[in-house]
Amino acid sequence: MRILLVEDDPMIGAAVEQALKDAAYAVDWVTDGTTAIEVAEVEPYDLVLLDLGLPSTEGLDVLRRFRKGGRQLPVIIVTARDGVEDRITGLDVGADDYLVKPFEIRELLARMRATLRRQGSGASPILSNGVLELNPATFEVSASGSTCRLTAREFALLRALLTRPGTILSRADLERHIYGWNEEVESNAVEFLIHAIRKKIGAAAIRNVRGVGWMVDRPS
Length: 220
Ligand code: CA
What we know:
- By secondary structure, the chain is α/β, with parallel strands linked by helices.
- It folds into two domains: about 1-120, 3-Layer(aba) Sandwich (Rossmann fold); about 125-215, Arc Repressor Mutant, subunit A (Orthogonal Bundle).
- The protein is about 40% helix and about 20% strand.
- The protein is elongated and about 50 Å long.
- Calcium ion (CA) binds next to loops.
C-alpha cells in the first residue's frame, strides 16, 4: 500500500510519516497542494491523507482536482478545522473520511484500514485467499491452522499479494508497495522478504513465476 501524505506542518508530517512506515505503509510526503496534484497524477496511490490549510493549492481544491478526473482515489482529510460546516464541506467535496487534529495515531490507522476495506473486497477486516488469512490490525497471518506475526515489511509484501490473489506482481510492483521515495532499497530485498515469509507460513503459499514475479493463489 502506497500512501500520499500531504501535510505542511513539519512536526506533524514527520510524526505521521514515521507512524505510517511503522504500520507497513510506503509513504510519500509532500508539503504543498500543487505538488500533491502533480505526484498523484503519476503515482497510483492507494490512499491520500490530506491537510486542508496548505501552501500553493488549498486542500479542498486539491480534492476537487482529484474528483474532477473521476478517480477512485480514497482521501482522508486530516485537519485542525473542526467546525461542522467544514466537515460537511469536506465530505461533500469528496473526502471518504474526515479526522480532526489533534488525533491519536491509532485512530488514524484504524480509519485508514476502514477506508481501504471499503475500497477492497468488502466488509471483512481479514484479507484471505482461502489458504492464508492476514489481519491488518495485528500483522498476524494464519495458514493451515497455525498463526504467526509478520514484521512490518513482510506484512506489506504479503498484503500486496493478498489484495490481488491470482495476479503476478513483479519485483518493482512489490517494491512500490513497501518502500517510499526516500527509502533505499537493497537489490535483493524482495527475495529476502519472500524467503522470510515462506519460512513462517510454508513455501507453497507464495508462488514464484520465474523471471516475472510472485503471486498467491486465487480463492478456489
Ligand atoms: Ca496545514
